[in-house]
């Protein structure tokens, strides 16, 4: 982002491009996506996040395309607008380091105050780590505990708050928040 230092595009103090929910910069009709941006992460009500997962780079690209097509070009056919409005997603990442080590991660936290770990980190490497901020789970890393990361991503997406007490003694304590059809988001 060095070439943008003296441009009219607003930068964050740590040299990322600041964008809004539609991935718009401070300059009209100029959008930015991917690892060079800081954007709002609405699932946790955060205003400036830089989450360098490939899934987030893809999501910001999709959002930018939607902004261009729906808001700039006004492609509204038959009075219908896009079902997608502004950037709203749950960060999700996975990695396979060797044929036996796969880690899935969902959520976002800059500085976890506490980490609640269930499982074995030494031998079997079968674990779940819940990252806690202000008494709530804000990220989960897991290995060999599928589908925990996927289920927690759904809980986050629906803006349900998993409390530390929910998972402290029960690895699956978050599951009570998976009932989306009968309960409204908090």
TrEMBL record:
Q: Does the keyword Plastid apply?
A: no
Check the record and name the InterPro entries matching this protein.
FAD-oxidoreductase/Apoptosis, FAD/NAD-bd_sf, FAD/NAD-binding_dom, FAD/NAD-linked_Rdtase_dimer_sf
Domain FAD/NAD(P)-binding as annotated: residue spans:
1-60
Keywords, A to Z, come to: FAD, Flavoprotein, Oxidoreductase
Q: Does the keyword Oxidoreductase apply?
A: yes
Q: Cellular component GO terms, alphabetically?
A: cytoplasm
Task: Tell me its cofactors.
Answer: FAD
**Pfam families, per this entry?**
Pyr_redox_2 (PF07992)
Q: MF terms per GO, please?
A: oxidoreductase activity, acting on NAD(P)H
Which portions of this protein are annotated as coiled-coil regions? none
Xref: SUPFAM superfamilies: FAD/NAD(P)-binding domain, FAD/NAD-linked reductases, dimerisation (C-terminal) domain
Q: Which family does it belong to?
A: Belongs to the FAD-dependent oxidoreductase family.
Name listed for the protein in its UniProt record: FAD/NAD(P)-binding domain-containing protein
Q: Which species is this UniProt entry from?
A: Rotaria socialis
Q: Recall the taxonomic lineage recorded for the source organism.
A: Eukaryota, Metazoa, Spiralia, Gnathifera, Rotifera
